[in-house]
Amino acid sequence: MATMTDVARRAGVSVSTVSYVLTGTRPISEATRDRVLAAMAELDYQPNAMARGLASRKSNIVGLLLPLTGRGLGATETAFVTGATEAAREAGYHLMLCPVGAADSDELQSLATQRLLDGFLVMEVQLTDRRVELLRKLESPFVLIGRTEDGAGLACVDIDFEQTVDDAVAHLVDLGHETIAYINHSPASLASGYGPAKRTEAAFQAALERHGITGVMVPTEDTAAGGRAAIQRAREECPALTGVLVMNENAALGILAELREAGLDVPGDVSVVSMVTSEVVADLASPALTAMTSPGAVLGAAATRVLLKRLAEDDGSTYEELLPCALEVRGTSGRAKKRKTARSARAKR
Amino acid sequence: MATMTDVARRAGVSVSTVSYVLTGTRPISEATRDRVLAAMAELDYQPNAMARGLASRKSNIVGLLLPLTGRGLGATETAFVTGATEAAREAGYHLMLCPVGAADSDELQSLATQRLLDGFLVMEVQLTDRRVELLRKLESPFVLIGRTEDGAGLACVDIDFEQTVDDAVAHLVDLGHETIAYINHSPASLASGYGPAKRTEAAFQAALERHGITGVMVPTEDTAAGGRAAIQRAREECPALTGVLVMNENAALGILAELREAGLDVPGDVSVVSMVTSEVVADLASPALTAMTSPGAVLGAAATRVLLKRLAEDDGSTYEELLPCALEVRGTSGRAKKRKTARSARAKR
DNA sequence: ACGCTTCGTCGAAGCGTTTCGACAAAGTTA
DNA sequence: TAACTTTGTCGAAACGCTTCGACGAAGCGT
Hints:
The structure is a homodimer of 349-residue chains. Chain A has helices at 4-11, 15-23, 30-43, 49-56, 75-90, 105-113, 130-137, 161-174, 187-191, 195-211, 224-237, 249-261, 279-284, 296-313, 341-348; strands at residues 61-65, 94-98, 119-122, 142-145, 155-159, 179-184, 214-219, 243-246, 271-277, 290-293, 319-323, 326-328. With 349 residues, the first copy, chain A, is of the alpha/beta class. Chain A is elongated. Chains A and B meet through helix 4, helix 5, strand 2, helix 12 and helix 13 of A and helix 4, helix 5, strand 2, helix 12 and helix 13 of B.
């Protein structure tokens, strides 16, 4: 393994000169630069990352903090990871996967103090997240994917849930739907203050009022079975519903199956729109799901770029970037049936 | 940020002593160890990873090589990554994601030469993979997830495709199926010599002969739409089929949908068994897929442990570990219909 | 009481870079 | 032409750790 000293000797210059052509920190004449470059090529020289890191106190590695618990990652999270990884590599950085949940502060503390990582990308952010306080205390640069309760002094990149709900509801309203169910995440995540669940809940209520239509909200587990149960319950509570908004890919497929088995046609009788959904899963369904496509990879890349920019400029200002999910109309949404129920519904009271 | 010198001063010992209590390389008396430990605690000392790496020429980081191309990772690959990450962390290692496909040798060359990583986990291995030659040439320890044509001198961990096919076919045969279609990966991957596709193809043929039953093999794209097309074609080529084996999760869902729309009941008329499938996707289907559950996380963990063991023992011997997929009977497989076709089929000739 | 090994500790020499101050040589200004 | 600035290069001091050789102090057999 050739070292910088070898290169220097071969090129007939000092090591510092070699370092300068490598880093571009000081001007070097065309002639010497060429000699040095040639020597490097001949020796197959590659700078030693550790030595570099030690001397410059930066590793060119960023850590991706994500809880690796239970059933593993969904397609959206995965896209996020790959997007971040790609973006990092394009900027000459590396990405380290750190299985660190909101709970393991010790783990994070030692990670951040080890000086192995230049900064952090934080996934699965809770509304109040101890990792955030900790990182701030340790003065480690970081960017959140998601948002905490109070975003002051933080940099975050997130999905624009409000906009996404608005767009989804608007789509259904445009199609003539006047009674819509919102199948949210689980009661547990709602109770624990999981951001996306809370935000979309509020946005859904607001959208209902704005459009002057009615709806129900039913929380559910993130599984196909959960979706089946939820749509049953929604139809009991609100038999007139013709539109369904689902916050979860897995539940969405269950809903489709349940509706089919109940003899209802999708989108003929009921329209289903899936929120924050990956294209792969949307295409898995039959018919393919009309969905708000989550910008997974784009989000990951955006977060990474924000972090790297902050590292370069030593910038710690507040920053927020929200990306909406794009409506992708596929096979599960269509015009609402004519409201022959209007009269009978009134008669019912 | 406290350094080792600070700790040494505070504990009234030399830096080397501190180092020894940290690494355990040499015996240290109970008394001094305690003093040093106390000093560390008081100063919130954390060893500097870079300095450590430089001095010891090991980083405690392993790289995970995976092509990050196109549609992103499937659930199985994702499980693999998380399994590997977890296993690494448990052993005090870190995991770096390296988007390096079989093509980017340059990228890999510099990665390996930089001395940033102690070893590599190689995913998506081709039957002849340039990364393998390169890593071997550079004398970087590595473990394959998958297998190359010739495994001599290599360490690899892989799914036992032969066993998995055997088990799946046996399951169908036990249920009385005598005509089975095998929906494999795409023609392109077959042509490029993608290991799993080739191996399962051969294993399927062998299983057919062994059981004395008939079957067809149809390659298909890895999408729901691909699955639909494939099952149509399979039924044209072989109208008597009652059992289907699918090599792809996404295609499996398409097959289910297509059969349903063709008026066939699953598992009443046709049984479907999905190979190398993640539980999440299997549960997404209605009815839930009978599947050979891929040991994603377990595989990832196994590969990591093998790599770490080789790092520790400087072992470079040939090694192969094959893990089968476990049959998980869910809702898409059942007894074959009585063969009233037997006579008419014979009459046909 | 003698030479032995073993134990516990220290000092110093790296590990391969970056970075700072210094300094000739060349270029610029007045 | 004197007095500066800029350009290009060098040497040496970090960076924070590991590891090697050395060595006094015990512990052991004889």
